[in-house]
Write a structure and sequence with these properties.
The complex is a heterodimer of chains A (about 325) and B (about 475). Helix content of chain A is about 70%, strand content about 0%. In chain A, helix 4 packs across helix 14, helix 5 runs antiparallel to helix 11 and helix 11 packs antiparallel against helix 14. Chain A is built from 14 helices and no strands. Chain A has a domain of about 220 residues: MetI-like (MetI-like fold, Orthogonal Bundle), CATH 1.10.3720. Chain B has 2 domains: about 200 residues, Periplasmic binding protein-like II (D-Maltodextrin-Binding Protein, domain 2); about 210 residues, Periplasmic binding protein-like II (D-Maltodextrin-Binding Protein, domain 2, 3-Layer(aba) Sandwich). Chain B is built from 19 helices and 13 strands. The longest helix of chain B has 20 residues. Classes of the chains: A mainly alpha (about 325), B alpha/beta (about 475). At the A-B interface, helix 3, helix 4, helix 13 and helix 14 of A face helix 1, helix 3 and helix 18 of B.
Chain lengths: ~325, ~475
């Protein structure tokens, strides 16, 4: 029998092996089963709350089922999908959504990055500034919508009041076709620019200092440093922020509901708002399910393309 | 020593994954197959006689939208009904107006409701009856309600399905509700700006408003509902349509295209967009009940149109800049029936009360008892004195009602002139089409003629496609 002391001294890394082996576990408690046991509650929750409803919606999308009318769900094949894809109304809402997503996300990215860049260059009060900028993001979209609705009111709103004091004419922010969508973009930008700013700030902070020091030794200009060091290193992170914001903006509902109700007419009705009307005004559950599935597919396909671009960017 | 086995992926066998996926699909399919019994839904019948009432504490829940009459009802019912049923508490749950239909019908869809008495707009009855969501109370009404005490059209509008012909009641049709709150539009005018006598015709009203606006800078000639939520802009167009001799549809042939957008309909749209809209305040294209009231209370409108049941706040000095007392405000504000033109039609507002088919039996019995109590002559007069708008003719002509508010006489005078919209299961979609298009025309997003033609075409499409399989609801 070997001496346990000498073993410990010479091979400190093997102390554990010197202790007597744990009593043998039942074969039922193998690593595999332990893994399954620990992950299954989360998996079951995921199945119940996400996967099952998705499959259920997928099934309903091939039927003429209506939640209020009840009765059996008749199989209608791809009729719901055909109706949606060929509907002029849907095309109009898709265009509105596209303009909104591109407008809002572009504005938020430019502003968010600019603010982050300016904050990152400050040495004093950086934390306080960041916290202040983050406040809009913490508010509920419904609350944001309500107070912007008051601010943008043509008669009693503070925005028109300020314009009036500057001698400018009143603007119908929420009731004219041209201004209503712009108002939505502005309000969304006010609320979500901080999100882009936060991600961009994280990226900017992570850029190694020695790169700037090396550039400074080479007497590189400010613009050159920004173009060749800052932007390329922050770009992938910024693109991820853009992806998140684009997905969020694509399914915009609450601000539209509170600020314009889709009006004037249907000029600010987004796809999500239209789905809501199909689902809860007409209670055409089958059609609404197909509409939802198509929206998920669009997001999935675009996200995949985007991620591939990101991966390529990483490899390059 | 045991080293943890390094695994690149979760070592759940593929077979297990396949089995789990298969189980999910089977569960989905089984749930799909077992969801319905395949029978066409229809409204269940309430008993003719009220079953024995419980002596245990019970809460009778209503659902309505958030406005003064809802709060008045809760206060009134708890004060008065408790005198006869001390174990019962009345709770009137409220939701924002824009969510009113959704809040009720999503619960109906779940076949489970947290309310016993839904307060439905008259046009919602068709949808609720067809889906079997509310009780058929025909036998109950025959045995417990004095139907001759009502204007027949009021009884029909808040309870009958299929829809009654305007102004009449089909005594053979089934009843699914009883009147809770009557309502119509009143014309609110500034006596100090346009004189004590209200305009008598629609054309006169427009010219008076035009002159008033020109003479009083900062005050707009008109204020009315234009929003694209709820039924705001739709009711406005329907009112003008009725006054100018138009029709919303032909209910017998279910024809809208060619009826709504005929010459009278086009004239009404032209009057609304080209003559009335220019007399409204800038940015009023999303105004509804509250905004119109605010404009009147702040002295910003010469003539306004609003629902009578929502007009009480106008007399509150705390909310008004027109005077520091009710009397001072009434020196400036007048209330009149709507001007007539080719016809004297006015919009039917108000709501009926119904019994949820998914409520428990004791609560359904209590709901029926409440309805019987509420429709009694003495209670209707008390409801009138408490600020409600009753429906029994004796209550409408009683001093309790006529003296309770300056606009109550307007309601009593308007009852024989009322016209309702379509009371069909497709109502929610029809009104949305009309709302969005009228709102678009009022705000310059569509030409008036195009908007009206689009309404007619799209609404006809909805009626024609009802019952069609697949792709509905777009």
């Amino acid at each position: 029998m070997s001496d346990p002391v000498s073993l410990t001294t010479e091979h400190p890394g093997q102390v554990a092996s010197a202790t007597p082996p744990a009593p043998g576990r039942s074969s039922r408690l193998s690593d595999r089963w332990l893994t399954v046991a620990f992950t299954s509650p989360a998996l079951l929750l995921l199945l119940a709350m996400s996967v099952f409803p998705l499959l259920w919606a997928l099934y309903l999308s091939f039927t003429d089922y209506s939640a209020t009318r009840g009765g059996p769900a008749h199989f209608v094949g791809f009729e719901n999908y055909t109706a949606i894809l060929t509907s002029a109304q849907v095309h109009q809402r898709a265009l509105t959504t596209l303009i909104y997503v591109v407008g809002a996300v572009t504005l938020q990215t430019v502003l968010g990055f600019a603010i982050a860049y300016l904050i990152s260059r400050r040495t004093h009060g950086r934390g306080l500034l960041t916290t202040l900028f983050l406040v809009p993001m913490m508010l509920s979209p419904v609350v944001v919508g309500l107070f912007w609705r008051f601010m943008l009111d043509a008669q009693f709103g503070v925005i028109n009041s300020m314009l009036g004091s500057l001698g400018l004419e009143q603007v119908e922010w929420l009731t004219r076709q041209r201004t209503a969508l712009i108002s939505l973009i502005v309000v969304d930008t006010w609320q979500w620019t901080p999100f882009i700013m936060l991600i961009a700030l994280a990226g900017l902070t992570a850029v190694p200092k020695y790169l700037y020091e090396a550039a400074a030794i080479d007497r590189a200009s400010e613009w050159f440093r920004f173009r060749t060091i800052t932007l390329p290193l922050v770009w992938p992170l910024l693109l991820i922020a853009v992806l998140f914001r684009a997905i969020e903006a694509f399914r915009l509902f609450d601000l539209v509901y509170i600020l314009t109700s889709g009006g004037p007419g249907v000029s600010t009705e987004t796809l999500s708002f239209h789905v809501y009307k199909v689902a809860f005004l007409g209670f055409n559950t089958g059609t609404a399910s197909a509409y939802g599935i198509l929206m998920v597919l669009v997001v999935l396909v675009l996200t995949q393309l985007y991620l591939r671009y990101l991966n390529k960017l990483k490899e390059d | 020593m045991r080293y943890p086995k390094r695994v690149g992926r979760l070592s759940v066998p593929r077979r297990t994954v396949r089995l789990a996926t298969a189980a999910m699909l089977v569960a989905t399919t089984m749930a799909a197959c077992g969801q319905d019994d395949g029978e066409k839904a229809s409204a269940p019948k309430a008993p003719a006689t009220i079953p024995e009432l419980t002596k245990d504490p019970l809460t009778l829940s209503f659902i309505w939208f958030d406005w003064p009459p809802a709060h008045a009802l809760e206060t009134f019912a708890n004060a008065e009904y408790a005198k006869e049923r001390s174990n019962v508490t009345i709770k009137v749950n409220t939701v924002p107006n824009a969510n009113w239909h959704d809040a009720i019908f999503t619960q109906f869809a779940a076949r489970k409701t947290d309310f016993d008495i839904p307060i439905l707009d008259s046009q919602h009855i068709g949808e609720a009856v067809t889906n079997g969501n509310i009780l058929d109370i025909t036998d109950f009404v025959k045995k417990n309600i004095d139907v001759k005490a009502y204007n027949p059209y009021l009884l029909a509008a808040y309870g009958q399905f299929p829809q009654a012909e305007t102004g009449k009641r089909d005594e053979n049709a089934s009843l699914y509700g009883l009147p809770l709150l009557g309502d119509t539009w009143t014309m609110i005018y500034r006596k100090d700006l346009i004189g004590d006598e209200p305009p008598q015709t629609w054309d006169e009203m427009i010219s008076v408003a035009e002159k008033c606006q020109a003479d009083n800078p900062g005050v707009s000639g008109l204020a009315f509902h234009q929003a694209n939520g709820s039924d705001a802009a739709a009711v406005t167009y329907n009112t003008v349509n009725g006054v100018y001799g138009g029709n919303l549809w032909d209910p017998k042939t279910r024809k809208i295209d060619g009826v709504l957008n005929d010459a009278a309909g086009q004239e009404a749209m032209d009057v609304l967009v080209n003559k009335m809209k220019p007399l409204t305040a800038t940015g009023s294209g999303n105004w509804f009940i509250d905004e119109v009231n605010a404009a009147v209370a702040q002295g910003k409108a010469c003539i306004a149109f609003n629902w009578i049941a929502a007009s009480g706040g106008l007399l509150d000095p705390k909310q008004s800049t027109l005077g520091t007392t009710r009397e001072q405000i009434l020196d400036k504000l007048g209330f009149a029936t709507l001007p007539s033109q080719k016809t004297n039609l006015v919009p039917l507002g108000g709501m009926g009360m119904h019994v949820s088919a998914y409520s428990s039996e004791p609560n359904q019995a209590e709901a029926l008892n409440f309805m019987k109590w509420f429709e009694r002559a003495d209670i209707q007069k008390k409801w009138a004195a408490a600020g409600g708008v009753p429906s029994r003719t004796d209550a409408l002509e009683s001093p309790e009602f006529l003296n309770a508010g300056p606009f109550n006489q307007v309601y009593t005078d308007s009852v024989p002139r009322m016209r309702d919209m379509w009371n069909v299961p497709e109502y929610a979609r029809l009104v949305d089409i009309e709302n969005t298009n009228v709102n678009a025309a009022l705000n310059g997003a569509k030409k008036p003629k195009d908007a009206l033609d689009d309404i007619a075409k799209e609404q006809q499409g909805v009626l024609d496609s009802s019952g069609r399989k697949g792709g509905g609801g777009l």
